[in-house]
Amino acid sequence: MMRISITSYKTDFTDQELKQLSQLGVDCIDFGGGNAFPGVKEQGYPDLDAILALRKRLRSFGLDVNRVTLPDITKKFMNNEPGSEREVENSIQAIKAFGEAGITLARQRFEGDTFPNSTIKYRALQRGGAIARGESISFTEEKLPYTTLENYEKMLDRFCDAYKQLVPAAEASNVLLGMHPSDVPHPGTLFGGLGYHRIIDLFPSKNVGYVYCVGTRAEEGGSSLVLDEVSNYGRKGKIFLVHLRNVRGSLATTRAFEETLLDDGDINIFKLLLELDKVGYDGCLNPDHVPILEGAEPDIHPSWPNTCIKWNYNNVGYAYSIGYIRALLNALTEYRGK
Fold first, then answer.
1. Rounded to whole angstroms, how far apart are CA atoms 232 and 237?
2. Which of 87, 237, 247, 282 is most buried, judging by how many CB atoms fall within 10 Å of its CB?
């Protein structure tokens, strides 16, 4: 049965925060920052005892860890600068620590997999004046130098250099490596479009798959692309986590997209859940990039000024999204007759 997770960039939760998550019906927490865990800033990778203590505390509130993020792979590594191999070594140590703690899903970030200057960000107003993220390629004609085939191939080579070391470590530690697509998925981004699919072609391991972001993939090609990819990746067992986000428009159809509440975009979310159920997906659904509703007190990230990328205690938008997903999961159970 599919469950619900939320994203956090911190580990020092108050009792009130954990009580609220439990009361809302959240099952798990996904940790979105490579530096979220104690030990990373000090030694380069998480401290095992701190991980075990955190997981024990979460479980006392009926919660658990679903997905973690490994220490970041920065531009130093992607540019093959001296000494940057240490970044991969830190991620390998992190995989071992998470594996020992019984955490079986991790994401590795690679800096430079997006082209942030290729779209213009704007403030989109949705139902009732809710504030949402909008991005358009119609307002910029800038041709950026790193969108060349040569630079793409260099980035891909460095990604492969890292994964050739990370995948065996993940297999040995029983940890799944889930890759998030490039957001925004411009043509030529490392994990956009064809590049995203290339990951499982290059690394045919049962431990290699996806943090499948519905909204990001819809940004590229709309709801039909999402349903096709869910069918493709799902039947291969390659979807490890679903980021559940709805959008209007896409780069392919309108040269722009706007994030929406789950019930208010182009994607029929219940139809999507039916497809996930059909391919046997039983992981978490994570409501991410929630529009800013009246009364919310969001922690705004400077790179995402018009949306909420992480849950916090005073965010009514997340409460709405969690309740909406729970209702759909109950409806799915009734629909299946189980």
1. 9
2. 247
Residues of the chain with pLDDT under 50: none
The residue length of the chain stands at 338
Q: pLDDT at position 323, please?
A: 97
**208-213 and 64-69 strand pairing:** unpaired
Q: Give the CA diameter of the chain.
A: 59
pLDDT, one tens digit per residue, over 121-132 is 999 999 999 999
Q: Distance between CA 225 and CA 85 in Å, rounded?
A: 36
Going from the C-alpha of 222 to that of each of 67, 236, 250, 254, 266, the distances in angstroms are: 26, 22, 6, 10, 8
